[in-house]
Amino acid sequence: MKEFILIFRRDLRLAFRRWNEVATQLLFFIIVASLFPLASSPDITQLGNYGGAVLWISALLSSLLALDGLFRADAEDGSMEQLILSPAPLGVVVLAKIAAHWVVSSLPLVFISPLLALSFYLPLTALPVFILAIALATPILSVFAAIGAALTVTLRGGSAIIGLLMLPLMVPVLIFGTWATEAAVQGGNVVGPLFLLASLAMLSISLGPLAASSAIKVAME
Fold first, then answer.
1. Residues 83-121: pLDDT tens digits?
2. How far, CA to CA in Å, does 70 sit from each of 31, 34, 66, 139?
């Protein structure tokens, strides 16, 4: 637990020193989601019909911007070799880095997404479900990002490859998240998609760091 906290705090400090990368991802999400109402009909009913899908697609695309830096900086300055050789299990180290990545890159999206949802006239009653779905989906994306970054940690231009690797994995998250949002808007049953997102999040958090740590060891050999 001590090693987890130390790595988590270290990565947070390093991430906030590169605040421009965090701001870029957040601004991308805001701009992409804001362009759809401007480019489409101002009809409230029409905006409400596709608003949930637009917000989910914007959030998933913005998450692709922060993938390459998850392990690459440590690999380039030699810190990754020290982390591999340290007494702390590499899975714990990877989990701490994933947690820091989620706090820096995904948590701001969770807070800003309800404001953007109001621009699509999503009902106020649907906002809690939408926020919960986003909160469950973003850890999954961070785990997928860690696996993709671990597989391409020694490759130049790995961010494009990570994006190609992640896009198929994003499909279930997109389906379940949009399903939960649309069900909340229409007053349907939201328990099913939320449980599926929660199950996928637990599975990803449990197995993802182990897969990423194994990929890092192979890539760094």
1. 777 777 888 888 888 888 888 888 888 888 888 888 777
2. 24, 28, 8, 14
Judge residue 120's burial from the number of C-beta atoms within 10 Å of its C-beta, 0-12 exposed, 13-18 middle, 19 or more buried.
Answer: buried
Mean pLDDT of 194-215: 90
Please give the structure tokens belonging to residue 11: 């990565």
- Asked whether 30 and 159 are in contact (CB, 8 A), the reply is no
Distance of CA 20 to the CA centre of its chain: 18
Check if the beta carbon of residue 30 is closer than 8 Å to that of residue 116. Answer: yes
DSSP letter for each residue of 87-146:
SS-HHHHHHHHHHHHIIIIIHHHHHHHHHHHHHTT--GGGHHHHHHHHHHHHHHHHHHHH
d(CA 52, CA 180) in angstroms, rounded, equals 9
CA 45 to CA 41: how far, in whole Å?
Answer: 10
Q: What is the pLDDT of residue 157?
A: 58
Is the Cβ–Cβ distance between 154 and 219 less than 8 Å?
yes
- In this prediction, residue 71 carries a pLDDT of 75
CB distance 42 to 119 below 8 Å: no
Q: What is the mean pLDDT of residues 25-35?
A: 82
